[in-house]
Amino acid sequence: MNTLRVALLGCGVVGSEIARQMVEHADDLAARVGARLELAGIAVRRLDRDRSDTGVDPTLFTTDAVELVSRDDVDAVVEVIGGIDPARSLILTAMEQGKSVVTANKALLADDGFALHAAAEKHDVDLYYEAAVAGAIPLLRPLRESLVGDHVNRVLGIVNGTTNYILDQMDTHGAGFAEALEEAQALGYAEADPTTDVEGYDAAAKAAILAGIAFHSPVTLADVHREGMSGVTASDVASAKAMGSVVKLLAICELAPEGDAVGVRVHPAMIPREHPLAGVRGAYNAVFVEAEYAGQLMFYGPGAGGAPTASAVLGDVVTVARNRLGGVTGPGGSWYAERPVRPTGETVTRYHISLDVADRPGVLAAVAAVFAEQGVSIETVRQRTEDSGDAELVVVTHQATDDALSATVRGLTDLATVRDVMSVMRVEGE
Ligand SMILES: NC(=O)C1=CN([C@@H]2O[C@H](COP(=O)(O)OP(=O)(O)OC[C@H]3O[C@@H](n4cnc5c(N)ncnc54)[C@H](O)[C@@H]3O)[C@@H](O)[C@H]2O)C=CC1
Ligand SMILES: N[C@@H](CC=O)C(=O)O
Ligand code: NA
């Protein structure tokens, strides 16, 4: 039987699981590929760590990633060190030398995916990255292959496990933000710098990758409107609960109803508890794809964690290995549609606005007048009066543009009777 040799870059949460699964299931993988998949080496930052749990021959570890990807006896490279550099240069070096690449690196793909695809095409090698978006869930391959004959209009969902875990812990156990984040880190869900998760950069990178593939148009992180979830308070979560909703960090990629502009955004939103996304718990992810002919499809499963992510990486490794044995490469990218990016101000959603106001006559009328001035229609108003004589006014609007809502918030801030605009959150899913 032939042997294909794989260089693994990184042996952290994901890398150690890839190594472990490759060793544990070596015979099955060989039978499925038609060749043995052998680890040629594993690039790590430090050699003094105990990695015996992977079952890997300790002599395979090296701190020289450049030498490893350049070796003649390496057929494919798996990059799971993360970040932009040196991941980018290592991948490019591997491709220049005829090696196919599998990566889980959404930050790099959202920054430079087109250049990486161009390099793969130029050097006639594969580039696969199913693990980069929504962890174990098969999503990119269905979009790239199964749905390529259809016309996708919208991709919407939860694509970050860490923030979903935090929001779920806040909602169901009343947990604090910091405590829930620490747990998510300990469970291997968070990025090396968890700000990436919490401030929505990770979800935004995934949204850019999804939009690019779904709409066949080049979309990068810079095109994504991004709001993180660090500003979501216990009171927002409670307020959502009171109106039968839950707060989730959503990624939404959509084609404008008219014209061909693409809008891509990541932000916290309140969604009704009966919506399927509301039931997505812990570090699970769920993504809806709305296509013209297929209708609505839902993809659901573990979105983060070492073992699930390694499962998606190994699926790609097997594909790359099969392609190599067959002397072919898989389908590359297709970004022929140069769609403009819709300005954020034109995004249309409903809003939940919470105001700290003085409880006296005329306040409600003054507040309502500001909404009316900007043409923002109010759906419901709820008031909670405190013993101190202050009141919390919660307004939910009908659909309005971001621009109209921003002008409304400015108008509310200027009102003498409004002490504070405590929170402004989008409402989705109805
Ligand atoms: N943890 C998860 O649930 C998921 C992670 N990913 C992606 O997978 C990649 C890896 O993530 P994790 O394993 O969680 O991160 P990690 O931080 O646990 O592992 C990365 C490892 O790479 C090593 N490393 C960094 N620079 C290196 C270099 N120049 N040479 C050799 N080793 C180097 C680090 O020492 C660390 O052990 C990232 O791109 C991440 O975004 C994707 C999906 C899910
Ligand atoms: N940090 C990411 C890991 C998977 O992509 C997340 O929490 O979703
Ligand atoms: Na995936």
TrEMBL record:
Keyword list, A-Z: Amino-acid biosynthesis, Metal-binding, Methionine biosynthesis, NAD, NADP, Oxidoreductase, Sodium, Threonine biosynthesis
InterPro entries hit by this protein: ACT-like_dom_sf (IPR045865), ACT_dom (IPR002912), Asp/hSer_DH_NAD-bd (IPR005106), HDH (IPR016204), HDH_cat (IPR001342), HDH_CS (IPR019811), NAD(P)-bd_dom_sf (IPR036291)
Pathway(s) this gene product operates in, as recorded in its UniProt entry: Amino-acid biosynthesis; L-threonine biosynthesis; L-threonine from L-aspartate: step 3/5; Amino-acid biosynthesis; L-methionine biosynthesis via de novo pathway; L-homoserine from L-aspartate: step 3/3
Residues reported to bind L-homoserine: E191
Enzyme class, first EC level, given as a word: oxidoreductase
Binding site residues for NADP(+): L9, G10, C11, G12, V13, V14, G15, S16
GO MF, any single term: NADP binding
GO biological process, one term: methionine biosynthetic process
General function of this protein: Catalyzes the conversion of L-aspartate-beta-semialdehyde (L-Asa) to L-homoserine (L-Hse), the third step in the biosynthesis of threonine and methionine from aspartate.
NCBIfam families documented for this protein: PRK06349.1
The protein's name in its UniProt record: Homoserine dehydrogenase
